Model the fold of this input.
Amino acid sequence: MNHIPMRMHAPSIRPQKLTRRAIAKQQTREKVLQAAREMFVERGYEGATIRDIARAAGMSTGAVFASFADKPELFDAILSDDFAALLAPMRAAASMAPTDREALVAKFGAAYRAHGAQLPLIQAALAASWTRTPEAEKLRREAMRPIRSLVTEVLERAVERGELATRFDLRLVSDVIWDLYLAGYRPAAFEGLPVEAQTARLAERIDLVLASLKVQAA
Done:
């Protein structure tokens, strides 16, 4: 007897529809995040309390704690959302740059412009970074990974084009350029440095890094 194998069809997986409760919870979370962002920008990390945030959101402190365990977790959620939102404009800015050097400058210039209106939030982020737990710091770095990888992508492309020597540790070079980018927020926050000047200063420092690599590669 010939046996005809039966075709097993995997059941189609339909997207799960959110319940009203889930939708309401998500809306509450977004409302808390928006209110918290405004409070952190206005009063800084230390000055904004959960009570202030709850009042700005029009809800109780208990409702805030139903979405976030504490203020650090709430603050980190805002920063993670910012990192995710930066990815697209940074990629778009770099895609229009004619050279790898200009791609780096364009990427960070896009980030500076996005943060220009909320520098107090950046100040708060830098201040909070010193008191963050190791677990929270690990999560923060994981959220930043896609953005940091953009720098490595540009450097790898420069190596492929023969502009940088293959013997250099690109991860180390990427770390140096990333630290230069972060350092650019201090003069913007404390000296009122405009975004254009902030970006131009970073460009000069990136030029120094890339020039030193090219000299050694020659």
Summary: The CA atoms of residues 152 and 172 lie 10 Å apart. Residues 1-11 have pLDDT under 50 and may be disordered. The two ends are 76 Å apart (CA to CA).
